[in-house]
Amino acid sequence: MRKTELAVVGAGPAGISGALEAASYGVKVTLIDRGDRPGGQLVKQTHKFFGWHAKGAGTRGIVLAEQLARHIRENENVTFFGSTEALGYYSDKVLLLETPRGIEPLQCERLLVATGASEKMLLFPGNDLPGVYGAGAVQTLMNVYGVRPGRSVLMVGSGNIGLIVSYQLVQAGVRVAAVLEAMPVIGGYAVHASKIRRLGIPILTGHSIKEAYGDGQVEGAVIWKLDEKWNGIPGTEKDLKVDVICLATGLTPLGELLWQAGAQMEYVSELGGFVPLYDENMETTAKGVFVAGDASGVEEASTAMAEGKLAGLSAAWSLGRVPPEEFTRKREEIRNELYQLRAGPTGQKILRGLETLSKRAKKVTA
Amino acid sequence: MDLRIEDHPILSFPERKKVKFFWEGREVWGYEGEPVASALHAAGIKVLHKSLKLDHPRGFFCAIGNCSSCLVVIDGVPNVRACTAKLRAGMRVEMQRGAGPAPSDRE
């Protein structure tokens, strides 16, 4: 049976950072991803990152993905398994993989789950019509494969993803009919919203989609205003002729592997859904199973990289590769970095979610 | 409007090899190695699957292999995700109706 010291599932920003950190202590790492190249969802992010310059801000996601992929290729302690899915992790420390060669077991001393998140669906009649796409799908189609999703798009959700993808659609030559926001205020940064408004695209706050219609595929959408209890107001309907409805209504952690591995999971709405309980080393209640990135709570790439680094460091330490003082010092450094990255208003929500999670974790260990 | 992007302010797409394949017996083209779903989408084909119980049309939703909304039959094999399957010349891609053909229906 193939053996490795640390298996990392998910080669996005969290998984790559974890793999590189552990590898820097000589740990033999196998990095696994469903995609055929490392980078995760950075490969479709054409926009520049916000935040600290030292932490990659001002760099486009696609460039960051290339840099991280190069580090992985050049690192002799990391083996990359592309086009491979992790099917399950068993108590004898065997991770079962579906590879292009078939099903293969992988014996691993430690496991880091950095599986990311998936898009939330929104309930409305016609939401299953072809032409209703997740915002990530629109980005993938357009920015990775160079295919426009359609001719005219209704964007649902005005968080940063909704605003950024609207702008990217215009860059690709697609018309954006409107951006809808159920809340009374725009969700994302003002700088992104201003760019959209300067292009003449209306951002309709207090609005939602009533239904999608079309014969076999989306031909249009009916939108309406919401009252203060989130109910649609009859008589305020408008009909928009669009062939794509793009949902940018948030993400939820992908925790299947963690559930299966026996980690205790808790529902924390601020973190996007079910997340594992984990300790200050990013270790879950399943011994030897670590978590990082969106799988531990939906945030963004810079916090994912910091969490990945912490999980990779902890895994290396638990394998006896990191001197205790160095481990304690570095862990504090990374925790400080995470604290600073979460200083903004979005970070406050995350901190509330993490507070809830840590209270429940204490109950478990008490 | 062609759905293929030729000019983009940020991105450039490498030269790729055009290949012919079949959708429901009809010849269409795409780029070798791209996902079957993007090639079909660029060819104007959005309905990839009919749902199990209600026969509703389905297309892709997540485009990265999470949701299984884009299941098609490729060269007789059902339940293949069109968004992650890579396009090869001469592939025979069919819309999957419900659960698709059972193994005994093949050959």
TrEMBL record, chain A:
One of its GO terms (molecular function) is oxidoreductase activity. Gene3D superfamilies: FAD/NAD(P)-binding domain (3.50.50.60). It holds the Pfam family Pyr_redox_2. The keyword Translocase does not apply. Keywords: Oxidoreductase. SUPFAM superfamilies: FAD/NAD(P)-binding domain. InterPro entries: FAD/NAD-bd_sf, FAD/NAD-binding_dom, Metab_Enz_Cyan_OpOx_G3PDH. This is FAD-dependent oxidoreductase. It comes from Candidatus Fermentithermobacillus carboniphilus. The lineage of its organism: Bacteria, Bacillati, Bacillota, Candidatus Fermentithermobacillia, Candidatus Fermentithermobacillales.
From TrEMBL, chain B:
Keywords: Oxidoreductase. CDD domains: fer2. It comes from the Bacteria. Pfam families: Fer2_4 (PF13510). GO terms for molecular function: 2 iron, 2 sulfur cluster binding; oxidoreductase activity. This is (2Fe-2S)-binding protein. It comes from Candidatus Fermentithermobacillus carboniphilus.
